[in-house]
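Internal tracking record. Fields below are filled automatically when a chain is submitted to the structure queue. Please do not edit lines marked as system-generated. If the sequence contains nonstandard residues, flag them in the REMARKS field before resubmitting.
Queue: standard
Priority: normal
Entity type: single polypeptide chain
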Amino acid sequence: MAQDETDIATSNARRLARRFSMEGRRALVTGGSVSIGRDIVLAFAEAGADIAVHYSAAADAAFGLPDAAATVVGEIEARGHRGVAVEADFSVTGEARRCVEAARAALSGIDVVVVCASVQKRIPFDDYPMEEMERQVRINFLATLELLQAALPGMREQGWGRILTIGSINEMKPDADQPVYAALKSAQTNLAMNLARDNARYGVTVNNLAPGLIATERNRWRRQDAKVWHDIQERFSPLGRAGRPEEMAAAALLLCSDAGSYITGANLEATGGAHL
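SYSTEM-GENERATED OUTPUT FOLLOWS
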């Protein structure tokens, strides 16, 4: 490539990067140590953000990844930005609020919150134990209320903010073995839509990203049998494959960067067409 062509390509790349810039932004990503959350963290770091990575030590250990949070913090720093890990158990009342306060103290403020942490159990509704229902309500919805109550006032005061909740295709197409999870994801999206209207005049956008079937740590057990996994992908969406965490991160970057400045109250269905 000639030098002038190289210069043009470099200039174009810089202009494109500015559209999706998060330079100087401070983000909190819950569930940010693995899978979709981790890829969102890395995309934000590459776009210029400093990031507080919330994680659950018990959850990461259950995935066989006890060092996941420390690893992703190292990856943020390798990209030239500040990373800090914040451990919190969202099944405990008050922990989500403490998580926001710890992230704010570490980063000297919060501009962006991505609500990615969640839990699910595949149990038919008639057999669902009450303690599991209560656990999911606590982690998948009440913690979100705590997080946003703690984060939104500061965003309104500074006149800029991004909130992104991570939902699920189960909002549109409930799974018979995940009725509580599906209901809570729907409730969280409804909350996001309400908050989008209430906070728009302050320069704060609130959106929901609803992934379809994504290859994550949570469904790694399904991928142990290649044929079974192939059949699941074929059935699941018109694209005939599962999504990748980095594809969800790209959508999150759109909604949380300068590129998404005129998008609020949106529910982006990143499902490979499975919601159709």
